[in-house]
Amino acid sequence: MKQEPTGEIYEKMYQIIAAIPFGKVATYSQIASLAGKPRNARQVGYAMKHVSKERKLPCHRVVNQRGELSPDHVFGEQDFQRMLLEMEEVPFLPDGRIDIKHCRWDERDVQL
DNA sequence: GGGCTGACGGTTG
DNA sequence: GCAACCGCCAGCC
Fold first, then answer.
1. 10-residue mean pLDDT series, chain A (112 residues)
2. Which residues get their CB within 7 angstroms of nucleic chain B?
3. Which residues pair with A92 in a beta bridge?
4. What's the pTM?
5. Could you tell me where the DSSP H helices lie in A1-112?
6. Residues of A belonging to the active site
């Protein structure tokens, strides 16, 4: 059983991911930046991969800047993540990617 | 301590 | 807009 990272930055990441509103998606760089590590976008993915399911993080709302979803081997089936996003009214493009430009979570929206 | 990997990003062509 | 290349940095062998 893999243990989740105990670093404070990971805890920060989990909070940020959990703060993503319904129908919105955030990029790895956004989370990393808000966590205080703008260059650690990869660590965001690493964190979610090793995080416990008890966290119930909406990892399906976390995508890269291209709007591509996580590799199929993560969720088991890529359609599963896509289904969750479509269920949240997230606009999808014919290419199979999500319209990141139109549903990107703006952290400023939370503070305003 | 050294080298490789990765749910990535930004720049360049 | 897309593809290729390089760069970042924590984690793991």
1. 80 94 95 94 94 92 95 86 95 93 81 59
2. A 27-29, 41-46, 48-49, 59, 62, 64-66, 70-71, 74-75
3. A98
4. 0.91
5. 8-18, 28-34, 41-50, 72-75, 78-87, 100-103, 107-111
6. 59
